[in-house]
Amino acid sequence: MDAFTTPLLAGTATGALLLIAALGLALTFGQMGVINMAHGEFLMAGAYTTYLTQQVVTSTDLSILVALPVAFLVAGALGLLLEVAIIQWMYRRPLDTLLVTVGVSLLLQQLAKDVFGAQGDPVHTPGWLDGNIDVLGYHWPFRQMFTIVLAGAALAGLGALLRYTAYGRRIRATVQNRDLAETMGVSTRAVDRVTFFVGSGLAGIGGVAVSLISGTNPNLGTTYIISAFLVVVAGGLGQLRGTVIAAFAVGVVTAFFTDWFSSSMAQVLTFALVVVFLQLRPQGLFTVRARGLA
Amino acid sequence: MKQLQTWGRTWGPLLAIALVAVALLMVAPAVLSPFRLNNLGKYVCWAIAGVGIGLAWGRGGMLVMGQGVFFGLGGYAMAMHLKLEAAMASGGPDAVPDFMVLYGDGTMPGWWEPFRSGAFTLAAIVVLPALVAVVLGWAIFKRRVKGAYFAILTQALAVVFATLLVATIKQTGGFNGLNQFTQFFGYNLYDPVNKRMIYSIASVALVVCLVLVWQLYRSRFGELLVATRDAEERVRFLGHDPANIKLVAFVLAAVMASIGGALFAPITGIISPSDVDATASILLIAGVALGGRALLLGPALGALAVGFGRTTLSETFPDQWTYFLGLLFIVVILFLPAGLGSMWSQALGRLRSSRPTPTRASAPTPTDELEVAR
Amino acid sequence: MFQSRTRFATGTVLALTAALSLSACGGSKSGEASASSASCVDTSGDTIKLGFLNSTSGAMAISEQTVRDSLSLAATQINAAGGILGKKIEPVVEDGASDPAVFAEKIEKLLTGDCVAAVFGGWTSASRKAMLPVVEADNGLLFYPVQYEGLEASKNIYYTGATTNQQIIPAMDFLKSKGVKTLFLAGSDYVFPRTANKIIKQYAAELGIEIVGEEYVPLDDDDWTTQVAKIVEAKPDFVFNTINGSSNVGFVKAYYEQGLSAKTTPIISVSIAEEEAPAMGKDVTGQFAAWNYFQSVKSPTNDAFIKAFQDEYGADRPTSDPMEAAYTSLYLYKALVEKADSFDVDEINDAADGVTFDAPEGTVTIDGENHHIAKTALIGQINADNQFDVVWSSEKPIEPDPFLEGYAWWDPSAE
Amino acid sequence: MNDDYLEIRGLTVEFDGFRAVDAVDLTLLQGRLHFLIGPNGAGKTTLVDAVTGLVPATGLVRHRRQDLLRTKPHRIVRAGIGRTFQTATVFEGLSVLQNLDIAGGIHRRAWRMGFARRGTPSYVEEALEIIGLASLRDRPAGVLAHGQKQWLEIGMLLVQDARVMLLDEPVAGMSTEEREETGDLLRRIGSERTIVVIEHDMDFVRTYADVVTVMHAGKVLAEGTVAEIQADPRVQQVYLGRAHEPMQEADHA
């Protein structure tokens, strides 16, 4: 019985985590064509923020709730800094942006190692998350449910931002037609910054969730980032819907493969599935503007 | 004067390659200690892979972030043969590698068997990566997956490849990789003279690869490749399938990486997942970016420089190496996207007439993938 | 450009390079290899160079830095006490960068470039395997301070950490003595856990302990949820943990999260020591670990070691098994040299058998045959201070048996 | 009459349920200058896209007994169908000569691609003469005037030996003289080719068109000579919604 429920529920939680991580990536990629390889390190920043928050807010029960907004701000600020310092100078060179952010990612990892030590620091799970509920034989941890709720909240928040706020309208206008938006008086530069801030901030929230799984360590970002990228690739662009479906699909499929084979094989098979998927549905990735090719 | 220019355009690059050949094959062995020469041999292996990356990325616009995979295919193919050679030298023609006895049940997987043959191994080093690259490239390019998507897929491939290696302990030695070779096609691997021989082979391989890309870059294919990089869809309406053009460059790059890996194994005496994973692949890219991705010699010299820097910087500032590497990416790509070598080309260009360079290969204009990304 | 008159000259270039390379190819065939160059170690001065080769960058840096620290401490102490054969130790430090190929490169540099008399370091098996052929070819010496999966012996390597019959097998004896009937194996997906579990499975069959599950997760993967669910389902008496590094945190969190605890399903670990225990983010009191040294070991030598270490590096720094083994390795080298009255590798090897040192863990003795050392096995239980209370001991040092030749149940070719 | 003509039957292109091209029938014969006109959004460019394989379509497009809708874009080019784009797309970094040469790739065997260019192929020289850029042969295409780029693109089609040329607004943005030159060029090369021009400029259409097809809302509205078209009340209706001198003010956008 729980041969089915365990991978399904655990995979959904993993998918939720991937979703939080991938939302920011999909957002910045969709709008600016920028792939931020340091996005994983923003997750890491969120995790370390949780650790630091727990040093200040001694009540473990409260600390996670405090850490969430703080992590959002910290990671968002890092993202904003990255955008202002580097990325804004190279919007015409998406592949180069990707490589520069690889450099940033290396720097941040080493920095974390030097500041916090390579050992990793403990993050304590609050009492109200420390427990589980028996679902058909699987002791479903509250922490996993919390991750799913968090992803839902992040998604809802992002959706509300895009739909109901002035900034959201500007973001959508910019995504659909940057030049037109600009002629309509939208400052796409400002919009880009907001997007980067929000996207990176979401990674910070993801970092809080990750810290509840594995504490902190400097390599934490690299663990999740490749899967998050695969989610973005499989999900296609421009629509949050694709990212949501892809995130949960990758999470659940990986969990089943892990259950049936092993974690290592699950990585291999999930990658293979994404490549096969691209064979079947490359349409989401492919548009050509016919009137001018240059 | 004009004749001199034409002469220089055609023969200048060859002359430069010849200088590299002389430096690697005659000067270096004369002035370096065996240890440093062996180190240089290691960098040369990276440089061979770098030349391929220059072809695929610099000229073809395909950011190959997983060349470690092909480096590893060649490296492991060669290492399997060396491992079997070592086993057979001590345990007879049916002997199996020591780690299979230690970690497994002492039986050898069937697909190891042909690697007892040196000829098969040499063929596999070329054919294996080519096959993988064709299948993968076909799947990716024919579906018009490119730009950042392509880069991410190749990096994911490197991660998956390393994971697979680490998990298959009985077949590939897992995290430990393959090591403890004793001989190289019958030659004692720890004899300094033979080590120099392997170094020379690597250097010759590098020179051959350089001559090959020199010819490719001046050929019509080279022009078409650059055209594909800059305006893929336009090339389609010249009657070419861009997928095929990119595939050729991708496969050549894969084979070069494989040859680099195949020589890396005997030179360092080990090939392990950490030599082929995503980080190792990034390191390969770093050299190419530094030297100048689209230049003829840039990738190779850049790879040599990064290899040298890694050794010396880690000897001098063990903890700071990662900072250097990170900064290298940021500074070079941000301020000098065409690489250090471009400064030299620009200086040279100023000396010459104001005629345009034949192919605007060194100035990347990767707007095409942006269009598609939208 | 178009009217290029030059005929393409690849052929010429190829011929040139081929000729160049042939001149360099006068190598010698196997068998007639020239004898390895005589040792370049300089013993004429009043110092002796020793290489410390540890990763101070990369993923292994945190672990290996602790080894580096205790090696430095030992060198300082030995120098203060007059050195080795009257010569002061001059450490030459190198970074292995957590990369086996770099270890191979650096040990070559240390042995042939710096001409050190011996090298101390390495942590992962991969790094040791990479250094082994080099140190054998150069006829150098390597002292390796970490417990490992055994199945190796080299005349050029001294292993001062435990081999399997000094850690894994005693841990199983301990489990048997606790009346354990069922056991679950959880490990990282690499060589040490796989090999350790192979031994555990065979010995468990011998002891009548049933293995009710076996799960592996890649080294850099932290999510153990699915695997822990299988432990919950299998309800084993004990979990044998061979997980390495930060992945332990993910395992321990998932384990408590799904309602397991030291009371219901205790864990015995072989890689969680004094440094790792407080980093779990969970109260791990009551869980077990198998080592040959704990900071809590009561002996005057250990007290002196801890005091010296904490005076040097800070009172908050714990001492752990690999640190102690590294510290011991330098003193063993001193004892070896003094017994041989020479820095020559062959003479040291001839004198090796029976060399002892009164180490913090207790008296250790070198086995001249396999170059491992006899060590006492200890089982510790984590207390509220994240220290280990020793709850079981093998009482006397166990002779090292890296190939498990003395164990009839061991069949290396069985799965 | 040989089979060197382009036959289009029931060609339909749908985007998310919207029919951009709706069951179009056209027969485009060799040796005549066809013009395709119509207001914005009439489906002219989409029609060309469908013929050249850039967007998926249903129906039939046949040239020399080959069904182009089942052919990949680069194979369509090799079958002798060439096109240009509204914004001239030449390789700006390459010289005029190199642009023409690179277009000649389809004449070469794959392995020949591995060699460097030696001398100028005769068909490149010819094209260079026809498009009148011989004196600018070594100029990078990027510095050419707008009109010259369009000619270069037409030259590339010549090198490709395109039997059918589909030109998308080739004279947009050109000066009057450039237009004349372009028109003459099209006349010169059109005698043995099938040429289709999408155009808004009615003066140009009037001067050079042999046959005009008017499209509206994805359908063919009318077909005939310039005079016939101008007289057609439906065409006037489409262009201005009222019936006086319609085409003079047809939009240029």
Short description:
Chain B is built from 16 helices and 4 strands.
Task: Explain what the structure shows.
The complex is a heterotetramer of chains A (294), B (374), C (415) and D (253). In chain A, 75% of the residues lie in helices and 3% in strands. With 294 residues, chain A is mainly alpha-helical. Mean pLDDT of chain A is 87; it is low at 284-294. In chain B, the strands form 2 sheets. Chain B has a two-stranded antiparallel ribbon with strand order 1-4. Chain B is 73% helix and 2% strand. Chain C is of the alpha/beta class and 415 residues long. The longest helix of chain C is centred in the first third of the chain and has 20 residues, at 61-80. The model of chain C is unreliable at 1-37 (pLDDT under 50). By secondary structure, chain D is α/β, with parallel strands linked by helices. Chain D has a domain at 6-88 and 163-249: Rossmann fold (3-Layer(aba) Sandwich). Chain D contains 9 helices and 10 strands. In chain D, a hairpin with a 2-residue loop joins strand 9 and strand 10 (219-224). In chain D, helix 4 (122-130) runs antiparallel to helix 5. Chain D is globular, with a radius of gyration of 18 Å. The chains are: A mainly alpha (294), B mainly alpha (374), C alpha/beta (415), D alpha/beta (253). At the B-C interface, helix 1, helix 2, helix 4, helix 6 and strand 3 of B face helix 1, strand 2, helix 3, helix 4 and helix 6 of C.
What's the tally of helices of chain B? 16
Give the strand tally of chain C.
Answer: 15
* Average pLDDT rating of chain C: 88
Which range best describes the helical content of chain C: under 10%, 10-25%, 25-40%, 40-55%, 55-70% or over 70%?
Answer: 25-40%
CATH superfamily of the largest domain in chain C: Response regulator
Low-confidence stretches of chain B: 353-374
The figure for the number of domains of chain C is: 2
* Oligomeric state as shown: heterotetramer
The CATH top-level class label of the largest domain in chain C: Alpha Beta
Instruction: Determine the fraction of residues in helical runs of chain B and give it as a percent range.
Output: over 70%
Side-by-side strand order of the widest sheet of chain B? 1-4
**Overall morphology of chain B:** globular
Major β-sheet annotation of chain C: 7 strands, mixed
Features:
heterotetramer, A: 294 residues, mainly alpha, ABC transporter involved in vitamin B12 uptake, BtuC, two-stranded antiparallel ribbon, 2 strands, 75% helix, 3% strand, disordered C terminus, D: 253 residues, alpha/beta, Rossmann fold, 6-stranded mixed beta sheet, 4-stranded antiparallel beta sheet, 9 helices
